[in-house]
Every structure is written in C-alpha cells, then in structure tokens.
Amino acid sequence: MYGRFIANSTGRPSSGSFMASSIIEDAYSTYAQRAALIQEFYGPDPNKKDAIMKHLMETLTGCLEKGTIGFSIVHRGLLEYFSHADAKGIQEMVDVMKEQAVEMLHTKEGAQVAMLCLLHASPKDRKAMLKTMKPFVVKICKEEYGHLVMLRMFDVLDDTVLMSKAILAEIIKEMEDIAKDKFGRRVILYLL
C-alpha cells in the first residue's frame, strides 16, 4: 500500500493539501519507510549538490509557507539542509524560519535545527526568535528537547537586558514549577 501511495504522489510534504501532508507525516513518524520518504526531498541526480540543495531549499520553503513546520519529516529535512548548506544558504533559511522555529522544539531534529538557527543567526534574528519563544518559556524549559534550545539561547544571546526581561523573568515567576520537572531542573542548574 505504501508503494502505491508514493507512486501516486510526489511524497513531498509541501505538495497537495494540508490533509495529504498529515498523512505523509503519519507515515513518516509511524512506519519504517522513513528513508524512502526523506529521499523525496532531494532532486533527481545525487551527483549535483548545488541542484539538490536548491531543490531542498525550495521544498522546505514551501513546507514552511504551508504551515507544515510542526511535522517531524520537515524537521529532518531542515536538519539535512543545515548539515550540508553553505553559510549563505543557512542564512537564507534562518531568515525564512526565524519566527517559526518555536513550533518545532518538540522533536529531536527540530530542536537541533532551532539550535543551529540560534548559532548561525544574526543578533537581530536571535532577538526575533527570542520574542516568539517568550510566551512559551515555561513549556520550553520543561520539554525533553526544547530545554536544550533554551540552554543554547543562554549561550548565544548577547542582549542581557532582553534576556532578563523575556526569559529570566518568566523562569523566576514559575521557578517552583520548573524546578519540579526533570528537564526544567536542568535549565535552572545551567543558570547557576
């Protein structure tokens, strides 16, 4: 059945409707054909890195525009892109996704991509990312992978005033709740 489904579609999360993307996401997150699904991100000729990277950028940009950034297959594609893109390509992707990165902290690959965004972002882009994360600080601190993004934020953000207003104030306000969580506790210990 899987082979017939892929034969009738491009397999890419950006193609078709949101419903089709949801079906592909379910297949990716649930079944063993992950490698075949992730290969659909790449262009037709594996010997042409530039063409493949361009195709991957276009596909991922389409996914981001269609609101499928929460899907784990998109996180995997983004991680592949960040792993192989040059500095210019990485900066272009950071520009596209800086305000959406908060939506992908629930998976290992998504958190890795968010940390790479923080690492490669300009100070202005980091501030934009921080502002999108502000309403979710407590939740992020208590997430299995999200708390790692918070730790990276502490390492790379230069604006200490913004950090204390946006992040530390929220952590202090909910200190007891965060300290009771096994991942939240790591955030507090990191700050000490």
From TrEMBL:
**Name the record gives this protein:** PUM-HD domain-containing protein
Signal peptide coordinates: none
* TM spans (from-to): none
Q: Which organism is it from?
A: Modicella reniformis
**Domain PUM-HD positions:** 74-192
Q: Does the keyword Nucleus apply?
A: no
Instruction: Write out the GO biological process terms.
Output: regulation of translation
Show me the Pumilio repeat boundaries: 170-192
- Tell me the InterPro entries matching this sequence: ARM-like (IPR011989), ARM-type_fold (IPR016024), PUM-HD (IPR033133), PUM3 (IPR040059), Pumilio_RNA-bd_rpt (IPR001313)
What are this entry's molecular-function GO terms? mRNA binding
Q: Provide the alphabetized UniProt keywords.
A: Repeat
